[in-house]
Structure formats: structure tokens, C-alpha cells
Write a structure and sequence with these properties.
Amidohydrolase, 25 strands, 32% helix, Metal-dep_hydrolase_composite, Metal_Hydrolase, Metallo-dep_Hydrolases_sf, single chain, hydrolase activity, acting on carbon-nitrogen (but not peptide) bonds, in cyclic amides, TIM Barrel
Length: 586
């Protein structure tokens, strides 16, 4: 008797091979049979505790998201949304050089403020929600390893926490590391990999800063430190060296290719994958192609370089629930402080309130708050801020910019922005793409997605709570790139599923998942491609301490299955928690 049968589905198995009709049988958390058949053949024989009729639907492996920041959330939240409602069955945390282990007793708040500054996760939510109970990285894995989750959870050890633990204030302030410091950090990294960390991560971009404005520890690490930690990682076992390189955000257009030089040498020496963030920047809109070509050539020469690429324009969302142009207007500030969300939305729709807000000057920003000058950014970027609509259009034309809509209406652009944000009861969010949209289309992303050196990442699931919700990448890949794109070429569904299953799993050595084959882990999605839809992003207020975060739903997932157990049925959480900690490559 099988635990689960999925019958008559169109299997896209994650290998990139052509789709086929088949029945899939599951027992004890693994795939035990994949029986190809025609539509007229009888279903696979044998009883099952549950049978899912997948006729006319796609059956795919569960998605593996390798770039998330649920490091703190795993300690209080077993559901791990928004990733878990987009077909994701495995997540990897600990990216960008920030994490919560190791931690010296008494320095927990410093790590929280580091994470809050870099990843825009409300510090109050982390302070109230996190349970702690560890000091070393192995102890951290022991704690989260006791949890049962909706998805499997893998983790990387972060340079920022390692440096602060080993070097104290000198490490936190980015002072140079001595040979003894490097040896001490190396012991911590090796210990973490031996305990089950899937990788080591670091950040070298000046865009990543703690709440006090200090760059992430390790930002300016010299080559001897980077190579010392890379060697320690390799000595600990199979793992990935992950980084946000210098210049990744366009702050320096010379640095990225210089970074690739040492990455190639390190990758060749330690024979481990090096994965780095890669996005198109307006300051050098074709630099990404050079970086990818260098990576492909390095690959051929034996250095395993894997650029992590984003599936869509990479930027920020603006609207009344989050950052916007009017946050510093006195009338808005007063109303927000006095009213609940529903009443505030009602008052914002009052023409007199609108006129008052539009007619006021901004109050000065608070110099002690990161991102407190976003209002000015929005006001001067109306020619690049797009109305997304419903369903959201992430490849919009210039006609959808606030500036162009205002011109067509014969209105002041700020008044138009105000009205657009009022839509959907003042919950509407608009998009400002900082990256991957230099030419006003997604052609560069199309090329990145087809480049042999690229791997899909950078979703930042669980992070940038007030500005971004890119944990929905898996659904976007299927809706936009496989089905709906109209401004350029689409991509085959088989290719897109492989990119976020087999390829991401293999990068981190998770060869027990990512494909639909006998003996593999039964992490699966049953998807109604005709009904698959990405919902507009909305602000939720469900974090600890009343913290807010952007979430984005999806419909069209008939079932998501982790280790043979259905975790979501028709988009609804079943309450099952078969997800476990993933310790090390397998």
C-alpha cells in the first residue's frame, strides 16, 4: 500500500527533459514508482492512503530556494511563509554574511540590529519572537533541529557573527584580522560545517549596514582572511562559499570583475562552489554579461563559480502601508499616529485630507533611522515608479509609470501617486526597480536565466519586510516566464522548473531532492498551470510585537508535498509539519 498516489499528471521531472504523463507513487517519504502511461491507460495499481487526480495538471519537484533570511523566524514560526505558499519545500538561510550563531551571551541584541539593518526585518519582532538558547553554531542547529516545519530548512554560517564572536568589537568594527584571528574564525567555520551547515556566507557590499550604519563585519576582509575561511570551510566538508560581492549594487563598477579574480583562485584551490549575487545595475547596464561570461570560462577551467540571479526586476515597493512620498507630511504623520489602519485608509480618501497632505512641506528625516529619507527618493523617481496592477505586471511599459499616467490625466504627478496608492482601500503597492530594469524590459533577465553559469536565487525570503516580497519568485517564474510574457520570448517550463529544483538543490549538495525519480525524496508540487496566478503584494501585520511584512499570495497550487505529506492543499495550509533541519550535503 502506498502512502500517496498522484495519477495522470503531466510530469516535469526537474531534469530539463521533456514532460510526460505518469503516475507517481510515494511510500515512507520517498518516491517509489514513476509509471509513464498514456491518457487512456489505467492508473497505477495499488491502494494508497490518499490519491490526487492530477489530470491536466503539472507534477513538479518541490522548489528549493537557496537565498532566504529566515534565520530568526525559524525559532518561532513553523509555517515559514511567504515561501511555503509558493511551492517551496526546502529553504537555505544564513545568506549575505548575517546570522544568529555563534553568539556571545549578551550580544544577542547586536546581532538583531545587524540583521535589522541589513535585511530590514523589524528588530522588535526578532527581539520578541526569537527564543535563542544557543551560543555556538552547532548548538544553534541543535535548537532549530528540534522544530517541525512546513518546509525543510538548511542553514549557512555567517561571516558577520563569526567575526564578532572571534574578534569582539574589533571584528564588529571591521578592523583587520590578525593571523590568530583568522585561525580562530577558521575553527568556528569548520566546526559549523562539520555540524551540518550547508555553507559559509559573507557580504562585501557597502549597501549592507547594521542599524548603527556600520558595514557588515567582513565587508573589508583582506584576501588572507577570505582564503583562510574558505579553506576552513572546505576542511569541514562539502559546502558552498556564498557572498554579496563588492559593487553588486552598482556602488563601484570596477570592483565586480576584481572580485571575480580572487573568487576564481579560491574556487580552484578549495574545489568548492562559489556563489555570488549578480544583478543588472544602471551605472553599467551590461557589466552583468561580462561577469557571467567570466564565470562560465572559470567553470570550464575548474573553478565552480555560480552567479545567483533574480527572476524579475529587483527593487522596492511603495504605498501607504509602507514607505512612500508622504510619510513626512505633518497631516499624514498626525493621522497615522492617531488612527487604526481602516480608519486611516478612510480618512486618506477624503479630498480635504489629500489636499492638505499635498500642500505641505516635509518634516526633516530622523538621522538615527535607516531608510528615513525614502520619501525624498520616491518624490524624485516618479518617472521610474510603476503601477503594478492586478494581476501584478513586473515587466511594465513606460505608460505605467506614475509620471506618464499623470501626464495622460493632466495632473500633478504627486497627486496621481496619491490616487494610485489609494486603490484597494489604500493598500496598493507600486514598484521602483533599482536593478534588472535598466532598459525598461526583462530581456537581460531572460539572458541570465538561459546562461549556463547562472542559478536562480536572491529571493530574500523573510527579509526586507517593509519594502520587498520576492519570495514569490517560484510562482513568477512559472506564470511570467513560461506562460504570460508578451514583451519578448518566453522560456520552456521544463527549463524553469529545473532552474529552481535540480540546479538549486545540486549547488548545495542536496542530491536527494530536486527531481522526480525513484528513490528521491517525495517533495512535490501539483500545479494547475491554467489557474496559476500571482496575487498583488499586500502588507500583513502578523510578526511578533505587531511587526509588519509584505506578503504575496498565489493560487493554482493544487497540492504541495514535503517528504510525502501534503502541507498545502489548494493553497491552504493543512497543518502538517514534515519539514526538518537539513544537516550537510547528502
Amino acid at each position: 500500500m502506498f502512502d500517496l498516489k498522484i495519477t495522470g499528471g503531466t510530469v516535469v521531472d526537474g531534469t530539463g527533459a521533456d514532460r510526460f504523463i505518469a503516475d507517481v507513487a510515494v511510500k515512507d517519504g520517498k518516491i517509489v514508482e514513476v509509471r509513464r502511461r498514456s491518457a487512456s491507460d489505467a492508473p497505477l495499481a495499488g491502494d494508497a492512503a490518499e490519491t490526487i487526480d492530477a489530470t491536466g495538471k503539472v507534477v513538479a519537484p518541490g522548489f528549493v530556494d537557496i537565498h532566504t533570511h529566515y534565520d530568526g523566524q525559524v525559532s518561532w514560526d513553523s509555517l515559514l511563509e511567504p515561501s511555503s505558499n509558493h511551492g517551496v519545500t526546502t529553504i537555505v538561510t544564513g545568506n549575505c554574511g548575517v546570522g544568529f550563531a555563534p553568539v556571545r551571551p549578551g550580544s544577542e541584541q547586536w546581532l538583531i540590529e545587524l540583521m535589522e539593518g541589513v535585511e530590514d526585518i523589524p528588530g522588535s519582532a526578532l527581539t520578541e519572537g526569537m527564543t535563542w538558547g544557543w551560543e555556538s553554531y552547532p548548538e544553534y542547529l541543535d535548537v532549530i533541529g528540534k522544530g517541525n516545519y512546513a518546509v525543510d530548512v538548511g542553514s549557512q554560517v555567517a561571516h558577520g557573527s563569526v567575526r564578532a564572536y572571534a574578534m569582539g568589537d574589533r571584528g564588529a568594527r571591521n578592523e583587520p584580522a590578525t593571523p590568530d584571528d583568522i585561525e580562530a574564525m577558521g575553527r568556528l567555520v569548520r566546526e559549523a560545517i562539520e555540524a551540518g551547515a550547508l555553507g559559509f556566507s559573507t557580504s562585501r557590499t557597502l549597501g549592507h549596514r547594521a542599524m548603527d550604519g556600520e558595514p557588515v563585519p567582513g565587508t573589508f576582509a583582506a584576501e588572507d582572511e577570505l582564503f583562510g575561511l574558505g579553506r576552513a570551510m572546505a576542511a569541514g566538508g562539502q559546502a558552498v562559499f556564498e557572498l554579496a560581492p563588492q559593487g553588486v549594487a552598482g556602488e563601484d563598477i570596477i570592483a565586480p570583475k576584481k572580485e571575480l579574480e580572487w573568487m576564481q583562485r579560491l574556487g580552484a584551490e578549495i574545489d568548492r562552489p562559489i556563489s555570488f549575487g549578480l544583478i543588472q545595475v544602471d551605472a553599467a547596464p551590461d557589466l552583468w554579461r561580462e561577469q557571467m561570461d567570466i564565470s562560465a570560462a572559470a567553470h570550464a577551467a575548474g573553478a565552480r563559480l555560480y552567479p545567483q540571479i533574480a527572476a524579475r526586476p529587483f527593487g522596492m515597493l511603495f504605498g501607504f502601508p509602507g514607505h512612500h512620498a508622504f510619510t513626512h507630511r505633518p497631516t499624514f504623520r498626525k493621522l497615522k499616529g492617531e488612527l487604526g489602519r481602516e480608519e486611516l485608509a478612510h480618512r486618506l480618501a477624503d479630498p480635504a485630507v489629500k489636499a492638505a497632505i499635498l500642500g505641505e512641506d516635509d518634516l526633516p528625516p530622523d538621522p538615527n533611522k535607516l531608510f528615513d529619507n525614502m520619501n525624498i527618493l520616491v518624490q524624485y523617481a516618479l518617472g521610474r515608479i510603476y503601477h503594478l496592477g492586478d494581476p501584478p505586471d513586473y515587466e511594465p511599459t513606460d505608460e505605467r509609470t506614475v509620471e506618464k499616467i499623470a501626464a495622460d490625466r493632466g495632473e500633478d504627478p504627486l497627486a496621481t501617486l496619491y490616487d494610485l496608492m489609494l486603490e484597494a482601500d489604500a493598500t496598493n503597492m507600486l514598484m521602483l526597480p533599482f536593478f534588472n530594469y535598466s532598459y525598461g524590459n526583462c530581456d537581460a533577465i531572460h539572458e541570465m536565466l538561459t546562461h549556463p553559469a547562472g542559478v536562480v536565487g536572491l529571493s530574500d525570503g523573510g527579509a526586507h519586510c517593509g519594502m520587498i516580497c520576492d519570495a514569490s519568485y517560484p510562482t513568477f517564474l512559472l506564470t511570467h516566464w513560461a506562460r504570460d510574457r508578451h514583451r519578448g520570448a518566453k522560456l520552456p517550463l521544463e527549463h524553469l522548473i529545473r532552474k529552481q529544483t535540480h540546479d538549486t538543490a545540486q549547488l548545495f549538495g542536496l542530491s536527494d531532492r530536486g527531481v522526480i525519480q525513484v528513490g528521491k525524496k517525495a517533495d512535490l508540487n501539483v500545479i494547475d498551470m491554467d489557474a496559476l496566478r500571482l496575487h498583488p503584494p499586500k502588507m500583513a501585520y502578523d510578526l511578533p510585537a505587531g511587526g509588519n511584512r509584505l506578503v504575496q499570495g498565489a493560487s493554482g497550487y493544487t497540492a504541495t508535498i514535503v517528504s510525502g505529506t501534503v502541507t498545502r492543499r489548494d493553497g491552504v495550509d493543512t497543518g502538517a509539519r514534515p519539514g526538518r533541519l537539513v544537516r550537510g550535503a547528502r
